[in-house]
Batch of 3 targets.
Target 1
Amino acid sequence: MAIALIVAAGRGERLGTSGPKAFVSVAGRPMIAWSIDAFRASGSVREIVVALPPGWEPSESEAAELDGCIRCEGGEDRSLSVRAALEAASAGEADEPVLVHDAARALVESHLIEELVLAVAPGSGCQAAIAACPVTDTIKVADEGGFVLSTPERSTLKSVQTPQAFSRNVLERALAQDDGVLSAATDDAALVAQLGIKVLLVDAPTENFKVTEPKDLELANLILSRRTAGGSI
Ligand code: C5P
């Protein structure tokens, strides 16, 4: 069995809403509820830990969506929230799969969660696996002056998402690095790779995007409303 850490402690300034982004309404429910549903629907997740903004209390209806989850206070930066969530989890085997997920990816589906758990299952020989999709744009590396430095070969590039899955002992070691190292990281896989661990890329759909700006919220609303109505998009 696996555990899931859902980080929801960000304020979401780019979305332009008042409360925490993870609790903005999407298709009639707090955004985080959709991810929790997907992890609950996966047959291999035994526990869900949610990192919430420090000092923030959910309303009664928001708290109801977190029923059965372990709650903890998140940190100043995303990786510090991941560390707080792992510390709040119940004890488990050193090779137990741990999934880290951004509450802002409300469209995650349980079959992707299952694939990631399988990838890092004890005995698989793999200790880190992350959701990723091919990029469709050509990507340029820019210099400090804003000029193009180089054009990486597009077929080798992947846009990385969450969930990211790790053997528990590997994630614990990655998160034991200095706070400064953690604060500089934009994903957990980078911290794990710094330990010399190989990270497997697992194909994921572009639909598993991160809700960052108002237009993302509109699209998430549309897709989740269609999904709940039993339609496809
Ligand atoms: O800000 P961004 O969208 O990159 O955040 C990704 C995820 O990390 C979000 O789900 C957000 O709630 C979470 N986060 C957190 N603690 C922070 C910053 C972000 O849990 N200090």
Note: The two ends are 32 Å apart (CA to CA).
Target 2
Amino acid sequence: MSPNFRDTNLLPIWQKIQNGERLSLEDGLILYNTNDIISLGKMANYVQQKKSGDAVYFVLNQKIEHTNICVLSCKFCDFAVKKGDPDAYEMTTEEILSKLTPEIMEVHITGGMPADWEWERYVDIVRSIHEKFPQADVKAYTAVEIDFFHKKFKMPIEEVLRQLQAAGLRTMPGGGAEVFSERVRRLLFNQKIGAKTWLDIHKTAHKLGIPTNSTMLYGHIETLEERLIHMLKLRETQDETGGFLTFIPLAFQPGDTNIKPHDQFTSAIDDLKTIAVSRLMLDNFPHIKAYWVMLTEEVASVALNFGADDMDGTVGHERIAHDAGATSPMELTKEHIIKIIKDAGKIPVERDVYYNPLNVYSDHVIGKIPYLNSIPFYANFEKRQFRILPVVPRRMGVLNSKGQIDAGLFSLMDYFSEEENLEFMNWGLASRDQVKSVMLFSKEGWLDLNGKTIGITDDTATSVQLLNVLLEKKYGVQARFERLHAGVNDLSGYDAVLLIGDEAMRRNKYGLNGFELVFDLAKEWYDWKKLPFVFAVWAVKKTLDDATKNELKEIIERSLEKSELDFVAVAGLHGKELGWSAQETKEYLEGFNFRLGEREREAMQEFRTLVEEVETVSIK
Ligand code: V47
């Protein structure tokens, strides 16, 4: 992909993006000021594709704004009222529960801050939802509300968050950030917390394993420079914690706020630029959300080709934007969202609050393990009618069992369990001796792991079985397995931790604090069996027609052959992000057999027999 740049000022920025270099505030200003909006969109789409392939996420969610009574009086807000106002409302927990249904996967709670609610009422909302609708993840209370609880109920921030987490809170929404500018804060929301407190609260949440979202309210009195400083502060915090899931630019709805005439909405050009610039500046953010409620459906759908890979969700009844004159509908049906995403040429992916895919609504979906080792298959993949969905092995297995993936590099265990529906394709990921990316980080030697607790990455389908076979059959010991949940984890309570893919490679480089011993599972297997280990195999749905299957085979072989000519050219940048030098990345990829022959088949058979002999893995 090379945009046909009308604005040559963009060329050095494009170079930086391709080299994986960070953009500066000055770069951001050039991007914002360009009229070459198509090149801007293409650059952002390029980065989006690298991160999310063709996926655009949405969630079946319900917004709950439990009350509009608020002690604050922010100038930009048309939602909040004072107690006694004829429009004031307060929802009971029962009323909140009555808004939910078993299909809802995310409940997004944020509201006003009344002077007279008890702490228990806020906790009860979270707990009751979590108990009555356990399938739904609770995303509750902005940093502004958390700070309010901290002051009003005289509890440390960490304690507020711990109690909410214990009640069932999973993530925090990104609201209340507004714009990280003291100038704007004084003028528009001088009673609200500033940048430092907002960021500190999110950092505390990340430390507790609560991932969070982030927002920026734009299109009122802020300058472009202030927007970019806001993004840079978020980027810096993300470098520290890695706990942000997404960034959501919120287009200001003027309503009766008197900040701007009530019909002076942000322009579509400004909205698209803001989405694209944020995608390019926030290189360490996994997702950028096009919040259709504030952007309108039309702009949100174009934004899906300007760097956004998420559409929020069905939302249900929303008031904050609509009280301020938003012209979007109150809610969208799932079918409507799917149509918008398909019309944008992307794969609609229904997700949970952590962005785990739950359902995929598209034909010709090719699953891609999003790790360095799969790059040779995909770097030169000519897409034609196919669409690429990056998804970690275990989740790909779940989608595959629902028949929602047409072909892909499947984890070996998932291939075994769906073998009758899949055709084996002779390519895969097989280690020769060591693999370097399926690693057990341990406090104990193998024999001392008997009866101990091992944290297992949420991603794995096959490596955990290999670990189990090694423990039981090679070393004659048994351990307890506990799944490491999404978010930032405190690993100190485990005796060992199994990591795979990029995370294992990163930790392999920098070490995992407190875990002195590091074992490569493929090496353990090789020393024992003198066989390669097959972690994943390419397979295609048997039901796909022959012409499509043959076309796909041709594309995969051609992509692999091209990549094999120069591993550094296709994967060097990805390796660099993990802290690996070009030479190390090259050697790492040279350590794989991507074509599966007799010995690999023998290894697969041997492993299958052993898995059947050991007790089924149970992971708490
Ligand atoms: O913090 C208030 C903003 C936010 C107006 O985390 C306004 O997934 C526009 O944060 N015009 C709340 N915006 C909404 C929010 C959000 C929305 C969707 C998803 C997520 C998420 C978070 O709404 C407030 C404030 O910044 N807001 N008034 C207005 N007139």
Note: The domain at 8-358 is CATH 3.20.20.70 (TIM Barrel).
Target 3
Amino acid sequence: MERSTIVRVQEGLHARPATRFVRLAKGFESDVEIVKGGKAVSAKSSVKLMLLGVKEDDEVTIRAEGADSIEAVEALIAYLENPLSGVDEAAVEAQSAPAAPSSAPANRPAPAGGTGGLKGVPASAGVALGPVFAHFPAQIAPRNETLAPDQIGAEKALFESAVARLQERLDQSLAADGMQDSDRGIVAALRDIAADDALRDETLDAIDGGLDAVSAVIAASSRLAGEFRALDDAYLSARAEDLDAIARQICLALLGQEDARLDDIADGAILVAEDIGAWDLARAPLKRLGGVVCGHGGATSHVAIIARTHGIPAVLGLGDAVHQLREASEAAIDGNAGRVFADPDDAARKRFAEMIGAADREKEALKAYKDLVPRRADGKIIQVAANLGALEEIEAAREAGAMGVGLFRTELLFMRHMHLPSEDMQAETYATLARAFPDHPVIVRTLDIGGDKPIAGVEFPEEENPFLGWRGIRMCLDRPDIFKVQLRALLRAAVHGNLQVMLPMVSDVSEVRRTRVIIEECAAELAAEGVAHADFPLGVMIETPAAVFAAPALAREVAFFSVGTNDLTQYVMAADRLNPAVATLNDASHPAVMAAIEQAAQAALAAGIEIGMCGEAAARSDLIPEFIRMGLTELSMSPASVQGVKKQLSELFSGAG
Ligand code: PEP
Ligand code: MG
């Protein structure tokens, strides 16, 4: 039985639609294949399906053989022609496979020299001196043993039981209490790959050919990973890492070994690694970490953001030089200058000990400002809030005394999963955030993603200038299917606290108006469905020159402004924020940028709305007095900066600053 059709699935068959399709296929006993361009693969393997690269408008054939072949072909064709009908969303959602975010791009190693030590990217400020915890999980080498024919059956059984043990372990982790949603997503992704037929079949074939199980797993996974890497799709290429990760776990199970665990890290140790994946990072005892040094990663990588949030000094992007630290017993790191010293000599140890002592004393003294509420002479409270990217960071923000959240970057939520996060999952995340700061505003920014960061379920066009392209509010307005899920989740979460919502990359008033129409549509739908929801104040980021010039008009439409100096600076100065060659121009204190901020502030004051700042400049002690003079009433920053800024404001308002 076979039938052909034209695919109407908007993003093609990868990520979530692939999971749905495979689950549907697995519901039938028949062998089912999907054929595109003469190539046929099993419809029951999401790995093979993703590799087939089926896109919207492709012609495919579904072929089935077995007792229920007619039903199977009809159901799968119906799904391809009308993907939104007849699928049990909840069941698919519960089973679908989120994934670890792809690792940060490698930075070119900077040459060692200058003031000594190894030079990397200063990714999180602070200094540290501590024992080295080298985390370089050994590559598992294929043994390439040739099996005798009578050993093959037993070797296959060993492989099957290793996979079963691994799946059991992953299932246990998933069932365990206290696991964060983000971790759960990563584990679920790995479990699904472990269960996928593509890896299993290819490994069994290799064992049938006489190869030992470990070598067979390595051969099969590297071949499949290679196919993913070769795809012209950043998101799918990144799936190769998931395959590598699961193959490694299967091999360890076969060898009866376990990976070194970061839980064993000593207090104050410097974690040294080639790269730290989300899987490890989710489990790292962050409170015990003295510092982080990685061969990969840059200042905007996931590791860097987490390190900054927790006030852990970090130097990343050392390249191959990181291997020089593997055998060191101690390391000193300067996260401000981006330098690392392996086994520092007495003079360096002394210097670092003094710097650390001074920093510790300052940190201790700053704790006195944790609960301070900065007030201007006229009594107006200045909110010193936190920038967060994940729920794991709430604790650090509360411990720092953050007065709410001035920017919750929702991108990570989307990048961490192999599918678009569901409305329920998003609503729970935003509600948890709102509940965590019952006395303060929590500002959630709608999805701000561009062509440089892949997320599952959205195909980004190749762009010459991604920073001037299809990102932020522009992408969301073009994709109401994605935007509405987020807005519905925000409306639902608003019931649980003082939630506010802000739009990124706004450059025209019409973007706000169009968003409002969608919000009203979502609210009406929720009302009709009898789902509890509440309205929220809507604000915009001021991060494009257009938003500055249009500020008077924007101020009439929204409840607040928040200045995004990271982008505003790059656009005002026409200096790419990621390009070190123009780093000196990329400075928020430039008079042109300061004039832009002042212009936006005047528009906000004239319209009687609040203006705050969530770009990195909000924590710059040299600029804070200016921002306060301009009338900004909220400064939002990494939690590690909160107490220092509160201290500065208290001195400023008491006349001491
Ligand atoms: C900004 O541009 O200043 C900002 C806060 O947003 P992001 O850094 O996430 O682009
Ligand atoms: Mg920005």
Note: Residues 107-137+262-358 form a domain with the Glucose Oxidase; domain 1 fold (CATH 3.50.30.10).
